[in-house]
Amino acid sequence: KLEFIILAVVTQSVIGAAIAVSYFLRSKAKQKDSFKLSLRKLFCFIQQNWREQLRYSIYFVARLPMALLSKDFAKLIIMGYLSANSFAVYTIGAVVIPFLPTLRTALVNTLVPEIADKYHETGGISKETLHVWRRAIQLTALIIIPAFVFLEIFSYEFIVGLYTTKYIDSVPIFQAFLFLIPSYLLTFDIFLQGTGNTKPIFVSSIIFLIVNVILSLFLLKFLGLVGPAIGTVIANFVSAAYLWSESRKVIGEAPFGAAVRKHFLQIFVESLIAAIVTKSILFITCANLSYLMQFFIGLAASSCIVLIIWYFSYRETLRDFWKLARAMLKR
User: Fold this and answer.
1) How far apart are the C-alpha atoms of 210 and 212, rounded to whole Å?
2) What is the 3-class SS of the chain, one letter each residue?
3) What is the pLDDT of residue 238?
4) Is the pLDDT of residue 35 over 50?
């Protein structure tokens, strides 16, 4: 773990330097100055702005140990208090779907530089910037929400199909952890990073750690293995609520507008209908197939139903989605 922390600190320092270089190049390009790029000019820029870069990066570095501890805290207490079999059951239930967190990372990497540029130009978060973020969140929801709904409905087939009925007790743990997926849409820290106000992000890590420790220990006693999973999810949303309040101060209004909330609800209902219809059809026609085969057939059928609905409801939105996807890939 120590080597990982050292590597993370070095990586964060490199990222901070990259931000400085990026801002230097962007500022020169916007001024339309013809300049010969040299190490001397670059180091002069960093020397003049090192305090700002240090203030930006120090809270990210400080939160790394807490983030690592929070991530594995539940596993540590289960490993310390319960059997190896219980630890295996919990670990399988805590499996993360790999590509979904990547969407959040790509969204942050795409929007933070743009928000930072606008902030340095105007000294605040403009309506245009907020609209771009809301639109990006709506497009990302087209993947995040259906994935969450489908995995909740087909969680039994997924876990039992991959790990056999020996780990059937992992299913409720998996279902609890799936509630972390919608939190990938709660990217309020983008506005804090874009404006250089990273202290609330550090504070949110402290809040997450404290709430997670208290709830995980308490719920483990009363709910068993699923308790720490529920505690982690609740702690995550408490931390997100704090970031929401802090980002609201920066923006001057609530990050999510009524249109965004309506969009989320509509996608959720459509995804739920598609998953339930698919599950019902499979239960009637394909009950003899293996659980893993049912999962993949359900995934294909549910995706087709959702795409048909979207074709008639979100044609313009889907075009915007592909534009955003190409922008993320370029990043």
Assistant:
1) 5
2) CHHHHHHHHHHHHHHHHHHHHHHHHHHHHHHCCCCCCCHHHHHHHHHHHHHHHHHHHHHHHHHHHHHHHHHHHHHHHHHHHCCHHHHHHHHHHCCCCCHHHHHHHHHHHHHHHHHHHHHHHHCCCCHHHHHHHHHHHHHHHHHHHHHHHHHHHCHHHHHHHHHCHHHCCHHHHHHHHHHHHHHHHCCCHHHHHHCCCCHHHHHHHHHHHHHHHHHHHHHHHHHCCHHHHHHHHHHHHHHHHHHHHHHHHHHCCCCCCHHHHHHHHHHHHHHHHHHHHHHHHHHHHCCCCCHHHHHHHHHHHHHHHHHHHHHHHCHHHHHHHHHHHHHHHHC
3) 93
4) no
Q: Residues 293-331: pLDDT tens digits?
A: 999 999 999 988 888 877 777 666 656 656 655 655 555
Position 279 pLDDT exceeds 80: yes
Q: What pLDDT does 57 receive? A: 67
The predicted model scores a pTM of 0.76
pLDDT at 60: 66
CB atoms within 10 A of CB 266: 15
Mean pLDDT of 168-175: 92
